[in-house]
Amino acid sequence: xxxxxxxxxxxxxxxxxxxxxxxxxxxxxxxxxxxxxxxxxxxxxxxxxxxxxxxxxxxxxxxxxxxxxxxxxxxxxxxxxxxxxxxxxxxxxxxxxxxxxxxxxxxxxxxxxxxxxxxxxxxxxxxxxxxxxxxxxxxxxxxxxxxxxxxxxxxxxxxxxxxxxxxxxxxxxxxxxxxxxxxxxxxxxxxxxxxxxxxxxxxxxxxxxxxxxxxxxxxxxxxxxxxxxxxxxxxxxxxxxxxxxxxxxxxxxxxxxxxxx
Amino acid sequence: xxxxxxxxxxxxxxxxxxxxxxxxxxxxxxxxxxxxxxxxxxxxxxxxxxxxxxxxxxxxxxxxxxxxxxxxxxxxxxxxxxxxxxxxxxxxxxxxxxxxxxxxxxxxxxxxxxxxxxxxxxxxxxxxxxxxxxxxxxxxxxxxxxxxxxxxxxxxxxxxxxxxxxxxxxxxxxxxxxxxxxxxxxxxxxxxxxxxxxxxxxxxxxxxxxxxxxxxxxxxxxxxxxxxxxxxxxx
Lengths: 261, 235
What we know:
By secondary structure, chain A is of the alpha/beta class. Chain A has helices spanning 26-39, 56-60, 68-72, 78-81, 106-119, 136-143, 156-173, 190-206, 226-234, 238-241, 246-258; strands spanning 14-18, 44-48, 82-84, 90-92, 125-129, 147-152, 177-185, 215-223. Helices cover 48% and strands 14% of the residues of chain B. At the A-B interface, helix 6, helix 7 and helix 8 of A face helix 8 of B.
């Protein structure tokens, strides 16, 4: 089942980070982007919306005592579950008990919406780290966000899945503006080439079927960087451990673009 | 640790069970490690099969389903679960007797096995209920596969006695495993069951699959998508 079309436009301070294919660095991007925004003085929350295979806690090396699962079951209030992450931003972790929510039911929908409503006024930015794929859970969590950031890498499988995701979001949620972040680029300008490539196929096959065209907006490219691998393996936040690395610098540039002028 | 010889092993019943189910006794010297392993293997095989049809039984099915969910969550490959139910099976039993009912079940089992790939798992999960797990089955092919299975059963007449034939049909419900998501076997079965219910209530001898989002990328789209990337790769 697909998520319903948007009835009211959600706040644009809520950004869904999604990708289609798994393993392209979605969680890595969400965490480091949040850290970059936090460094600029913004109050940022990353919400682990990957209810099935959450791994934000793994990436940040956190061991949460209270999770979204406890909030959903009413065992704890939302403020108890907010956790300060290294990098100066906040996280709301799903927890392993969320496995049973890997399918979106009406009840989970309501719970999720309640959590979003509660966190929204407390933060300047809320990043939803969604699951991979185009399941109903992913589509629903994306539907709660005002903006969508699609993370893609310059390789055929990632490109195909990102394209499929964009197509579904355009047709089922009426998305017309989608931000694109190209991760693991191998040379300068590859991000622009990827955007161009995706836009070209969308113009040819998707846009003719829509009332108004979908536009992809490149928010940045993160170069393939040995530092990234190292940080992921050491489970440290790149922006903290290696702020001078090319990937860190690129991440800060993306954050700067997202700040209000 | 107790030595293996303190309790005499009683293997007669195991051997009887194997013989009764038409299997060869394990090869090798009785009591040797190799012989014991072969005996255990044969018993494992026996306990995962349905006695009447030789299909995987419910226990084996549940095990395979859990394994498939893990695989799909990790690999993101699509997998389809079909649940099938013989239409009006009670009528067969009531009008022709239980022997005829058994013949129908066996014939349907054969038709199912014949209409899927060797890698697919066909199981008898209840009296007249079957299930098929189809790993690596793209959503674009789901309808075709399920329809082929349904039609195969419809076109297979069943001999139920001397010169007597009946034809039966199945209703089929199906759902794809949510890709990249660690779901549970129970949820997956429930979703497929809901579709089976739809197939039954919409007239039987029908296929109903859970609708998936239109996320198919055609080969033309793919070609255009990769055009310049291939050039870059060769630089």
